[in-house]
Design brief:
The complex is a heterodimer of chains A (about 350) and B (about 600).
Chain A: H1 5-11, H2 16-29, H3 37-45, E1 50-56, H4 62-67, H5 75-82, E2 83-88, H6 96-109, E3 115-119, E4 132-133, E5 136-137, H7 138-146, E6 151-155, H8 156-161, E7 186-189, H9 196-209, H10 222-225, H11 236-240, H12 251-255, H13 319-322, H14 328-347
Parallel strand pairs in A: 1-2, 1-3, 3-6, 6-7
Antiparallel strand pairs in A: 4-5
Helix pairs in contact in A: 2-3
Chain B: E1 3-5, E2 11-13, E3 17-21, E4 31-37, E5 43-50, H1 57-60, H2 68-73, H3 82-95, H4 101-127, H5 142-152, H6 161-176, H7 197-217, H8 219-225, H9 256-286, E6 302-304, E7 307-309, E8 318-320, E9 323-325, E10 344-347, E11 353-354, E12 370-371, E13 380-382, E14 385-388, E15 400-403, H10 412-422, H11 425-442, H12 448-452, H13 455-485, E16 505-514, E17 517-526, E18 529-536, H14 538-542, H15 554-559, H16 571-578, H17 584-587
Antiparallel strand pairs in B: 1-2, 3-4, 4-5, 6-9, 7-8, 10-15, 11-12, 13-14, 16-17, 17-18
Helix pairs in contact in B: 4-7, 4-9, 4-13, 5-6, 5-7, 7-9, 9-11, 9-13
The chains are: A alpha/beta (about 350), B alpha+beta (about 600).
């Protein structure tokens, strides 16, 4: 159970009298008048919302943007009622030293009881000064903020795997979070960006069940990353029937045939796009006519063109069969991969970093 | 040396107290700002620094030009899609590909959806807290708030006392919890906040309404591009094929149901812009009628490439026509040509990059990006713990783009200044009507030039542009339907899809009116691969450090002579910087492997 704010203060030797004084000062600082002091004290003595520090390294902010698209739960409900998003450069009111002070305060007051969400990643070249926060390298803030955290959420492909700035030749040495922080439980939620409802589901799962979701061998929640896009694609019957789009805007494209020959990476990409879909289930890339580019896979930028037919799935034996028949083999192989993943995940339950 | 006169007419005095803001929050990316304030707490010198550097152009080198859109789209997930659009335009320009009319209209709707979405989220979630005090909203009378809402915007349905009471109760519970989340450590007792509690409560309600609605707007991207953020694009057209009739049309990317769905989302954008966003900006501004700071280059030195052609490939039909205005002379508009090596140039004298000769600028087709992180001799602190920067040396990861040597502002205010000067009727009506409404509410008599050349003018221009884009989308949608009805369902031109059909060497430019301003991508294709790729983006223009001549950029210019209530609570700095909607990931994307020159390109 998460300790209440009051319990933490008592444990650290703060007297009840000092605590009440703190509440009065807080009320005054907020311009609320003395009558609110009691209410603040009451709130703090009861269940606090779990503090989250959402850090931003080298990134494009697509994960934050995706997060606020969440429909169930609504982003505002997560932020107002479920967690306490105390630090997030992108939406927080405070700037400068007032912003930095928040990290100090949370680390100090909620030792072991707060979550660090990381969007983007730290660059390590040039002493880390390719990403500067408060005049210092971002990697320093990352190390400082995570030292006493309960767990880390690596949002998106940047934090999970490096993503675009880590594509070859990666001159900044942008490095995924788990390669820098190796002694904390890390949940990877890859995708460029991840699906909004997957993001809020990870958060609400942790709050509801007070534990981490079950992870696969790569540290991803199995509930969302154990199946390939291809496994549940609504165009899958066309794949099985050998009906393919052969050129953009051809008859097959208009009829919604399979995009495999146009380079679709659905058969090798683990994500929930074809089941949960995007933006409240409105659509997903394949439904809108473009193949999957595999954005939730490690190193997807360096696996060849979006429009090159998959070649790195030869090991599964799909390539030789797909054009002619379809995916009977793929289904068998997919099952085997999933079984293997499950076994590995048990061994890695604590997820102490990749290497 | 503490007082400097810049060639572009500003006086910089660094003798006063130095105030540092790092991180600057509620922006995209990472940014630092330092100012000097005099004994009266008036800003006399400003230093703006881009503090991140990712590097995408070198990553593109050697890759398939048809893939480039996805890489550069990841320059920014906030203005998501605008780099992808610029990229496919640059590639198509280089290869001589013309896209079908349907593809053009769909891309236009995606661009304008982005414009509306980005402006709404910017105003409510990144900018409003500079003007709106959520803590003060607790003191509001919900009945009085209801009256205010109905007077400001009679057509907005969410206006009952009960509605505002519920919102207030929710905010009260939140604040009384003692865990203020994103509002923590705000400057809520700073007298710079001027709204009465009722207006604060109304604005907080709209903060939440906008948060709910923005996720609806972007579904236009989801239908056409499969997801948002980061919808998919395609060189040669759009990937969403059209099938209105017959077998399997239900599974087609675009059919009647999908197009109706898009039309409904467009209507939400139109309604929200007209009934909530624009009235809020005018109402809030009227409580800050004396706060006319933050103009800088705004409405004085402005630039845009021009956007939204009625007829694709015909710049003369641009509905927001481009050009350059200098020295506030709206009567003379210079034409802009992104291909001309003399016009758009980037300088690095004060940027963390090296050129062989840093007194000159380089056109993007000749661009060099050689990183060189070094601090000036007067820096306080160390290499990895900067206390105060030395702006006489290199001090930012942003380059300094100039138009014929002039520092210019880009963005909605620039587009609106240009459109007004061009005499675009819709824009003139919008500006004149909203200014009249402002003057009526505030009891002032501001003229257009005075009102627009300010932080609030910049914020107003953004709201007007959102309204215009939402309206224009209705036209685009109607035109798409008419075109399909006339029998044209083409969405992609595949004649030059195969690289074997390409010339051995080709160069192209793509431009877009991105939410934050003029965006350009320059590409050089050789043997079917990317030889060189350069982006000059809006925040690079606005957030530029000084150039070799000492001209300051728009961010630095806008802060000068602004009085601060409490220098340690930099709400005035945030107001003006946020009015540009800074996007630092966009402006600091460039790099070159090991500092090598990317390529040598000869200008035709």
């Amino acid at each position: 159970m998460t300790e209440t704010f009051y319990e933490v203060m008592r444990r650290q030797g703060i007297s009840r009298r000092s605590f009440l004084k703190f509440c009065s000062l807080t009320a005054a600082a907020l311009g609320l008048g003395p009558e609110f002091a009691g209410k603040i004290a009451h709130a703090m003595e009861n269940k606090p919302r779990i503090p989250i520090l959402w850090l931003h390294g080298l990134e494009c902010t697509c994960c934050s943007e995706s997060f606020i698209r969440s429909a169930h739960p609504l982003a505002k409900d997560v932020i107002l009622s479920m967690v306490s998003l105390d630090y997030d450069d992108t939406i927080m009111a405070a700037s400068g030293h007032q912003a930095e002070a928040i990290v100090d305060e949370i680390v100090e007051k909620y030792k072991g009881n707060y979550i660090v969400a990381v969007e983007g990643n730290p660059p390590l070249n040039e002493d880390g000064m390719y990403c500067i926060v408060g005049g210092k390298p971002f990697v320093e803030q990352l190390r400082y903020a995570t030292e006493h955290c309960k767990a880390i959420i690596s949002w998106g492909s940047c934090a999970s795997y490096g993503c675009v700035q880590a594509a070859k030749p990666n001159s900044t040495r942008a490095t995924s979070v788990h390669k820098v922080i190796t002694d904390k439980p890390i949940i990877k939620v890859p995708g460029c960006p991840p699906i909004a409802e997957v993001m809020t589901a990870v958060v609400t799962y942790m709050l509801t069940f007070e534990r981490m979701p079950e992870l696969d061998r790569q540290g991803r929640p199995k509930m969302f990353y154990s199946q390939r896009i291809h496994d549940n694609c609504y165009r899958r019957p066309h794949f099985d029937a050998g009906q393919f789009v052969e050129s953009w805007d051809d008859e097959g494209a208009r009829k919604g045939y399979c995009l495999y020959k146009m380079g679709c990476k659905g058969p090798t990409t683990y994500n929930a796009c074809s089941t949960i879909r995007w933006n409240e289930g409105t659509s997903f890339p394949i439904q809108a006519g473009h193949g999957c580019i595999g954005c939730s896979e490690d190193g997807f930028w360096d696996k060849g063109s979006w429009y090159a037919r998959l070649t790195d799935i030869n090991q599964f034996g799909i390539e030789s069969n797909a054009d002619a028949v379809g995916g009977g083999v793929a289904a068998v192989v997919g099952g085997a991969v999933a079984a293997h993943a499950a076994v590995s995940a048990v061994k890695r339950a604590a997820n102490k970093g990749e290497e | 040396m503490s007082v400097i006169k810049t060639p572009n007419g500003y006086t910089l005095d660094s003798s006063g107290r130095r105030v540092v803001v790092d991180p600057v929050s509620r922006i995209e990316g990472h940014m630092r700002c330092e100012v000097n304030v005099d004994e009266n707490n008036v800003i006399r010198n400003a230093v703006s620094t881009g503090t991140m550097w990712r590097g995408l152009e070198v990553i593109l080198k050697g890759r398939d030009p048809r893939d480039a859109w996805a890489f550069v789209e990841r320059i920014c997930g906030v203005c998501t899609g605008c780099h992808a659009l610029t990229s496919v335009r640059a590639v198509e320009d280089a290869l001589g590909i013309r896209i079908p009319k349907n593809a053009h209209l769909i891309r236009e709707m995606m661009a304008k959806t982005l414009q509306v979405h980005d402006h709404v989220v910017h105003f409510y979630h990144l900018h409003a807290l500079d003007w709106v005090n959520p803590v003060n909203a607790l003191k509001a009378d919900p009945k009085a708030t209801s009256v205010l809402q109905q007077s400001v915007s009679p057509r907005h349905p969410l206006s009952s006392p009960g509605y505002f009471r519920d919102i207030q109760t929710r905010i009260r519970k939140f604040i009384e919890s003692g865990q203020l989340g994103p509002f923590k450590n705000g400057y809520w007792d700073n007298p710079a906040y001027k709204l009465p509690p009722e207006a604060d409560l109304m604005a907080v309600a709209h903060y939440l309404e906008a948060l709910d609605l923005q996720k609806e707007f972007v579904k236009v991207h989801t239908v056409f591009g499969g997801k948002n953020p980061h919808p998919n694009y395609l060189v040669g057209g759009v990937p969403c094929a059209i099938n209105m009739d017959g077998d399997l049309s239900a599974g087609a990317p675009l059919n009647m149901e999908r197009l109706n769905f898009v039309r409904a989302r467009i209507q939400e954008m139109v309604d929200f812009c007209k009934n909530v966003y624009l009235p809020d900006v005018i109402a809030i501004a009227s409580f800050y009628k004396d706060w006319l700071y933050g103009g800088g280059h705004g409405a004085i030195n402005v630039m845009d490439y021009g956007a939204y052609p009625k007829v694709n490939y015909d710049k003369s039909t641009d509905q927001l026509p481009g050009g350059v205005i200098l020295n506030g002379n709206w009567d003379e508009i210079y034409e802009i040509d992104p291909r001309d090596p003399e016009q758009v140039q980037e300088f690095v004298a004060h940027s963390w990059y090296s050129y062989p000769d840093e007194s000159v600028g380089l056109h993007p087709w000749d661009g060099i990006t050689e990183p060189n992180y070094e601090l000036g001799p007067k820096t306080k602190g160390t290499r990895t713990n900067i206390q105060e920067l030395d702006e006489s040396a290199k001090y930012s990861w942003i380059k300094a783009p100039r138009w014929r040597g002039h520092a210019v502002e880009v963005g909605p205010l620039s587009r609106y200044t240009l459109a007004y000067a061009h005499g675009v009727e819709y824009v003139r009506n919008q500006v004149d009507t909203s200014l009249a409404a402002f003057n009526r509410l505030a009891g002032t008599n501001l003229d257009v030039k005075t009102a627009l050349n300010s932080t609030i003018g910049r914020t107003l221009a953004r709201a007007l542009e959102a309204e215009y884009c939402a309206d224009m989308m209705v036209d685009d949608w109607n035109e798409l339907i008419a075109n399909i009805k006339a029998g044209d369902t083409a969405t992609a031109n595949m004649e030059k899809w195969d690289p074997s059909t390409w010339p051995k060497e080709a160069k192209g430019v793509g431009t877009v009116a991105a939410p934050r301003g003029a965006l350009g991508h320059w590409i050089h294709i050789k043997d079917g691969r990317i030889e060189n790729y350069q982006c000059v983006v809006p925040t690079t223009w606005n957030g530029s450090p000084r150039d070799p001549a000492g001209n300051i950029g728009a961010f630095e210019a806008c802060l000068l002579n602004t009085p601060m209530e409490r220098p340690d609570e930099p709400v005035e700095i945030l107001r003006s910087l946020h009015s540009f909607d800074p996007c630092l990931a966009c402006s600091t994307h460039v790099m070159s492997e090991d500092g090598e020159e990317l390529t040598e390109v000869k200008i035709r």
